[in-house]
Amino acid sequence: MLELYHAEPAANSMKCLHCLKEKGLDFVSHYVDLLRFEQHSPEFVRINPNGQVPVLIHDGAIITESTVINEYLDEVFPAVSLRPENPVERARMRIFSKFVDEYFCPALSMWGWHILVRRVAERLAGNELEEILGRIPLKEQRDKWATVAGESFTPAQLEDSKRKVSVSIDRLETILEQSPWIAGSVYSLADINAYPMVSGVRRIFPDILSEHLAPRAWTWLTRVEARPATQAALAMPNKVPELLRTFGD
Amino acid sequence: MLELYHAEPAANSMKCLHCLKEKGLDFVSHYVDLLRFEQHSPEFVRINPNGQVPVLIHDGAIITESTVINEYLDEVFPAVSLRPENPVERARMRIFSKFVDEYFCPALSMWGWHILVRRVAERLAGNELEEILGRIPLKEQRDKWATVAGESFTPAQLEDSKRKVSVSIDRLETILEQSPWIAGSVYSLADINAYPMVSGVRRIFPDILSEHLAPRAWTWLTRVEARPATQAALAMPNKVPELLRTFGD
Fold first, then answer.
1. What pLDDT is stored for residue A248 in this prediction?
2. Per-residue pLDDT averaged across A75-104, rounded?
3. Would you call B52 an interface residue with chain A, using a CB distance cutoff of 8 Å?
4. Measuring CA to CA, how many Å separate B13 from each of A179, A190, B181, B231?
5. Is A91 on the interface with B (CB under 8 A)?
6. What is the pLDDT of residue B35?
7. Number of A–B residue contacts, CB under 8 Å
8. Least packed by Cβ within 10 Å: which of A135, B94, B116, B144?
């Protein structure tokens, strides 16, 4: 049996939802409500001591890290393959997925925290915030919460993250000048792992990603979104739009 | 034909030298002298636009990123396998390798820069330093050089990096309580990818890694070093000890 603990179909949770849908695999979905801090609950921390989603459980074996989960799924269920047969293209798939994890996603994520999580933190009463911070297992996550609940990121930090987002879209655009998909000739985990971040850039930074500014990345998004599996993954539970409405956006 | 562009048998260069030796693969070694900034030379930047070692060239195909290079080598030359057959153990191999790349290595690397690169920078005349900085392709690398050549890292940054190194050794120790090797029952790329960092901790932080403080990590190092391939990789060209002698260490 496959079980996925995940949040909204965005960022790292989307990567695994998307992969499961592309591969046509049945799974039990466990929605973890990040806005209620369920990822730091004792029940969830027993599953992943880092208190982070997504987590895959396959016949009792716990696999963490969205990029690793997706390679695992492709290795164990090879019927629908999402990794290029050609080893050079497979290396390209891994290089871009690594770039997304180490550079692109953290840069974009700072803006996600700045826009959304900061406002969630502002709504919490002092005691409640203390209690939530006290339950976060990773120091890096605790520090990020303390930052957004306090003075927030500095303009210089936000500007540098935006620069990195721009570098990331340039890199994608350059790759797509040479091949239809990120790893080369076939649709792969590299496209699936990049999709939620690129789609986030389109939403947050129209001055970086538009049909005019990055035409190849723009049509790549359209082609990814034309796939039924992408739509099926995007249709999973999502509380964020409702939350943004309560903020008056 | 296999060619590897690499520096000293330490950090990321060691990962690939070690993997090639374990697999018994013949390769042409191209030593890139980091102390002469050959990684930023126009010739090298044509091979890797990021100006970073190691780089593998296999029959003309260029593969970057040490972790990806090692999976590539294991995929293309499967005779001596360095990835567990069991997919759960293979996922564990990837999770720890990712942890090394994203958390352990950057934390330890700050101390490497603090101890060694800072002193190299101090020896450069003003103009020479400007010229070197101007040739570095990645902004993140330029900034690191500017930091070590200027006021260096803050005590708080160094202390936090040391904390992360300590967390990394704790995580290794916990894993080795459950299995003889990092991914589980077999020696794998996870051990190869972690080795140069763990060996660096033994050298720099005897207050974190000693036979007494982390006995399993300590004997794991001994077992890795008893392998002829490890010794063969460590015997590759290394200018760092000579450099440290010139500093009077």
1. 62
2. 98
3. no
4. 30, 25, 22, 15
5. yes
6. 83
7. 57
8. A135
User: Tens digit of pLDDT for each residue in B51-100?
Assistant: 999 999 999 999 999 999 999 999 999 999 999 999 999 999 999 999 99
The answer, yes or no, to whether ipTM is higher than 0.85 is yes
Question: Domain residues of chain A, as ranges?
Answer: 2-76, 87-232
Q: Domain B2-76: what homologous superfamily? A: Glutaredoxin (3.40.30.10)
Q: What is the CATH number of domain A87-232?
A: 1.20.1050.10
Q: What is the DSSP string of B146-188?
A: HHHHTT---HHHHHHHHHHHHHHHHHHHHHHHH-SSSSSSS--
Partner B contacted by A74 (CB < 8 A):
no
What pLDDT, on a 0 to 100 scale, did the predictor assign at position A191? 98
Select from A21, A2, A24 the least CA-distant residue to A233: A21
Smallest CA–CA distance, residue B245 to chain A, in Å, is: 35
Q: What angle do CA B118, B120, B123 make, to 5 degrees?
A: 110
Measured between beta carbons, the chain A residues lying within 8 angstroms of B68 are: 91, 94-95, 98
* Chain-centroid distance, C-alpha A225: 16
